[in-house]
Amino acid sequence: MLNLRELPQRWLIIGIAALMLLALAILAKVLGNTNDLGERMGLLMLDRALDNQTLRVQLIAETYAWDLDEQAEQQLESPANSDSLLLRRWLPLLHNRYAIQAIGLADDQGNARILERADSSWRFTSVQRNGLQSTSSIAQWPVGSSARPAGDTVAMGIDPRTEAWFSKALENDQDLPIWTEENTKENEQCFHLSKLIQPPSDTHAFQVIFLSIDAGAMVNEKEGNGSGAHTAQFDSRKQMIGEPESPAIRNIWNNAAQPLKAHSSGAPAEVEVDGRRWLGRMAPMDLNGLRLYSGAMVNVDAITHLNRAKHMGLTLVLGLLLLLGLLLLIVFLQSRSAALREMRQAKRSSLQARHLAKAIG
What we know:
single chain; alpha+beta; Beta-Lactamase; eight-stranded antiparallel sheet; 12 strands; 49% helix; 24% strand
């Protein structure tokens, strides 16, 4: 019969063994899931980078909308009839926001006044359309100079009423600035932000105020997104806006952009660039009147390397638990063997005592 003193020890060993088996089962399940962990981590990083990029560009775009709203309110509250008053309002804005290439005001008669950034100079164009008396003049002076020369008479330029930003401002049914895009003659991407200024009465002409913004300078105002991914912005045709400064990152996007464009549904795509695997995705983002696309890329090899290190660590823990279980089994068998020897020895001693008692008696 089993000694009662051995019962607690046996149950202790059984309890430890059961806990180890449970730990081994949980660890084995975790190891089985690590194969998908790398992909899930990559998708999570990708989604986070895209969300950060979209939010970043939307916030930047809102600051330009605020600038235009402020200029529109000033014009509505105190209509500027002189060029000097407009310049006092506009020059500080262009000084502070380098991405803004031009600001202008046009009305339904085709009259317009436009201040442009021309390399290291300011160019101010004034157009007055009064039938046969229509005139157009341009004044240009260095950025550092405060003196504006008299304008030179030039041929009439493009009627602002034919511009896309003018018609879209008229069609806009929201009290918000509206975005348009175009490629300049130099094949540079440009955004236009315009807003209709409602006249105070029917006797006044309605006006449209607009900003012309360098698209690349705008979307690259802030660097990085802190997520460890490479991001880029694309226009409505999915053409990259601007270029990354790093040649290596530029090479990655040049090779990855076309496969990402092919995934119109926005599904992730895996591409290989210079022997390294990248996971990327392109997702739409909307401004008022304009759809852009945010893109992000994460290095799959880096994630796989991290996942492999975690997998090796878990495998090592599993091996140690198995070794500990084996040692526990050996200890249990040795303990059981010692208990059996002790029982046999006690039985022999008892028999010897009985035999001795018979011999003496």
